[in-house]
Amino acid sequence: MNNQKRREIFTRWRDANPEPTTELDYTTPFELLIAVILSAQATDKGVNKATARLFPVANTPEAILALGLEGLKTHIRTIGLYNAKAENILKTCRILVEQHGGQVPRERAALEALPGVGRKTANVILNTAFGEPTIAVDTHIFRVANRTGLAPGKTPLAVEQRLLKVVPAEFRRDAHHWLILHGRYTCLARSPRCGTCLIADLCDYKDKTP
Ligand code: SF4
Predict the structure, then answer these.
(1) Which residues of the sequence carry a binding annotation for [4Fe-4S] cluster (predicted)?
(2) 146, 147, 182: residue to mutate for ligand 1 pocket, most atoms within 8 A of CB
(3) What is the pLDDT of residues 26-71, one digit of tens each?
(4) Is the beta carbon of 208 within 6 A of some atom in ligand 1?
């Protein structure tokens, strides 16, 4: 795929959705961090249901620490892997209080040092909470980048690095959300909706559906 096509793809996504954002509900960087940790192998809808119960009761590291492990679990037990996630969240809250004044740090290394936070989560926080032009490659972005030819790569990291290289600067901050939404609602894993796809004429995928 050439750069002209890439620019056209992002221009169409921007025209259709000028201010894309996450489907996770949050009002502060800390709430977003907790929502993203909870979202591993869970749907955004399921996470939103749980955080709608949790955040009115506790939406700061101090308040979640005060809930304790069992208290936290009662609010998130509808989410898969909630035992492990609850433990990671408590450890993360402790580090935030002890090392970051109760705030979510804006540096990648400090974010990735938090339990339950890997490169992908750090990218989401840097991008969505702090407006940095990072791209968090999840399963949707990995598929869309490879299928369309936008930024092929064998690993999520390879795709991330390629996207950062080839996405024009003006689209870089929002690229993450356009790609995820495209993968979630149009370029579906099993049967992509090529017939109604906004970028079908620009996409390199050989087996387009009617
Ligand atoms: S044309 Fe099909 S394969 Fe290509 S991006 Fe659209 S939905 Fe995905």
Answers:
(1) 187, 194, 197, 203
(2) 147
(3) 999 999 999 999 999 899 999 999 999 999 999 999 999 999 999 9
(4) yes
- Are residues 4 and 202 in contact, defined by beta-carbon separation less than 8 angstroms? no
Ligand 1 close to Cβ of residue 147 (< 6 A): yes
d(CA 206, CA 189): 15
Ligand 1 atom at minimum distance from 198 CA: 6
User: Are the C-beta atoms of 57 and 88 separated by less than 8 Å?
Assistant: no
Domain ranges of the chain: 3-21+134-196, 29-129
Q: Looking at beta carbons, which pairs linking 2-5 to residues 24 or more positions away fall under 8 Å?
A: 3/166, 3/168, 5/202
The count of other CB atoms within 10 Å of the CB of residue 27 is 9
The answer to whether domain 3-21+134-196 has CATH 1.20.1300.10 is: no
Q: Report the predicted TM-score, pTM, of the whole model to 2 decimal places.
A: 0.91
CATH class of 29-129: mainly alpha
Active site residue 120: yes
